[in-house]
Amino acid sequence: MPIRYNFEKKINELHKDLIKMGTLIEQSLDDAIQALIKQDVSLAKKVIDKDDEIDNMELRIEKECLLLIVTQQPIATDLRDIASVLKIITDLERIGDHCTDISEYTIRLANEQYIKPLIHIPQMAEAVKSMIKDTIDSCVKKDIDLARSVCQRDDTIDDYFDEIVNELMSLMVEKSSVVKQCTDFLFIVKYLERMGDHATNIAEWIIFTVTGEHI
């Protein structure tokens, strides 16, 4: 069997594992936000427990990447492809950590009546999830236009962040008794904003590895 065929087969398997990890992260983010909306402690704990699975997946993919580098000694585009996967799993693992962080705040808030219905936070989370999915698609398909669109969408996440923070600050000024709850929500939106940054980092790395262009 040709050596090139084996190498491409391994790369395809690597991409499949990357998609699985991305899907797991998207589900964790979905569950974390649903748990927050419904004040579902059981679901929040499930997200926290799943973090070990995400960590193990990162280690397994990292091992596959290093094994490919050692045994196949890839160069040029092939090496950059593997380097992209290594970069992506690191950022994805950190996004998984932030899902856990949000779930821990959900447990803290579980017995409190929310000061208002959650509207913008779930919308912000949905926008972040879309960015995460598209970064992985752009890596696997080498779709630079899609990667660039992810970078551009970070401005939308920043706009959500500014809007929610301003709203929470106004509520705290109006009513001192809600300061603690508003502070907890400030941390939650900060974690979402960082997730958007991680997705943007990944997209910028993909653009660099394919074109050599820093943006």
Walk me through this protein's architecture:
Helix content is 87%, strand content 0%. With 215 residues, it is mainly α. The longest helix is centred in the first third of the chain and has 36 residues, at 3-38. The chain is elongated. Belongs to the PhoU family.
Provide a quick synopsis of the model.
The protein has 215 residues and is mainly alpha-helical. Helix content is 87%, strand content 0%.
Write the topology of this structure:
Elements: H1 3-38, H2 41-72, H3 76-109, H4 120-141, H5 144-174, H6 179-211
Helix pairs in contact: 1-2, 1-3, 1-4, 2-3, 3-6, 4-5, 4-6, 5-6
Mean pLDDT: 93
Number of strands: 0
Alpha-carbon distance between the two ends: 41 Å
- Along the chain, the helix and strand elements come as HHHHHH
Share of residues in strands? under 5%
Q: Report low-confidence residues grouped into runs of 5 or more.
A: none
How large, in whole angstroms, is the Cα Rg?
A: 19 Å
Q: What is the 3D form? A: elongated
Largest sheet: none
Structural class from helices and strands?
A: mainly alpha
- List the total number of helices: 6
Q: Helicity level, as a percent range?
A: over 70%
Subcellular location: Cytoplasm
Domain PhoU: 19-105, 121-206
Keywords: Cytoplasm, Phosphate transport, Transport
Function: Plays a role in the regulation of phosphate uptake.
